[in-house]
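[09:14] KT: can someone run the structure on this one? pasting the chain below
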Amino acid sequence: MKQPVLFISSEAYPLVKTGGLADVAGSLPLALKQAGIDIRLLLPAYQSVLEQLDDYQVVASTRHYDHDIDILQTTLPGHDLKTLLVHCPALFGRPGNPYLDTNGQPWQDNALRFALFCQVAVDIALNRVGLDWQPGLVHCNDWQTALVPALLDTFLQRPATLFTIHNLAYQGLFDDRVFFELGLPGGLWGMHGLEFHGLFSFIKGGLVFADRLNTVSPTYAREIQQAEFGYGLDGLLRHRASRLSGILNGINTDEWNPATDRYLAKKYDIDSLKDKSINKKTLQKKLELPVDRQIPMLGMISRLVEQKGLPILLEAMQKLLQFPLQLVVLGSGEKAFEDSLQEWARRYPKNLKVIIGYDECLSHQIEASADLYLMPSLFEPCGLNQLYSLRYGTLPIASKVGGLADSVVDANQENFEQHIANGYQLPENKPDALLHSIQRALDDFSDKPRWKQLQINAMTPDRSWQASAAKYIELYRLAIADNS
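[09:31] RB: done, structure tokens below
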């Protein structure tokens, strides 16, 4: 594909990250560039982003909503990917979280902030700021960028648009008056536009007006067309089903590779799986758990919220901690879940270790040390940790939803004989089902030849972004054809 691409995101690793969107935006454009695509990444110039950059330059200027805006150009740290930044200090020059204030509440002017970001994206997409570069396709991600397809739709000559849904639960909903205060084209209002039950919906800008829609796993693309997962937008998504697809995320295989991982006590690969247990022994010492390579270790690195299955896990905890195993949990979230986990850890110090917060080094060590990985999520658009776990020979115990259903193949006998089994799927999201799946996994763990085969199955497939990038390039071609 020869058409240039503008990739728009509100976050990208390593510059700014609150979730999986940042991992995608920091990896997919790199894979696309490697595949020969002329691609540029567009981000807000948050204060934290500028603090990390040694070198950037002003390449254009524009003005929206009475704010003077500079467009800065730099490269993504560690790479030569051209990265454009929307520099408006009054709106983006704030410390901390890109979306939330110091009280953990959304910034009151988020609608203005991301409307301005989208307006600048449109300026670049239409080559109105003198960059002498115009994309043939604009790839938008989540609600913060979703006004771009809507605004571009008001122009006769425009680039094609793709809108990717990373999590439909976040929609960018505001009072209807905000739509009019932002001076958006009146034709975009109404139930067939940006109105959602009387509110102003950013995400509908992408869902209604983009040439193509996709999400981050094939199963999630089907799920969001159902009332249970659609958050009131399932009817619209069914209406656009012919333009909606799912592509499973890849992972950064440079960052997540047990053979080269700088955080590990002992590196290993598919041919040296016996060395994996050295990492377990090291982590047991570090966390003051009983040191025993033979005891199965379960890992969980997660936001501690209902979506991630915490109520199911906690309801099962009394019986779970009677099993011969160790469980290591790293994460933060709702205080009630944090407190409950810590209380269980106080009662069972030899079986459960809970670390509240996030630690990049420890997350790698848990992935490498654990034998099993827990993901009893209620919904999971893609999920990344099960993909990391598979790469590290750590078998997931996961719900059969979203990207988990697309990547975790249950270790039943039929799948095992076909050499595709790589984990354990929960038959339903209930405590007894979780306990039953864990018991199955423990039984397999005690059968060393079977266990090694399951690990080999898990580690063999290519989970890099290169595989996913090829599918995105084909989707770009379809969007451009739709727009021609």
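[09:33] KT: thanks! The chain has a mean pLDDT of 96.
[09:34] RB: yep, looked fine to me
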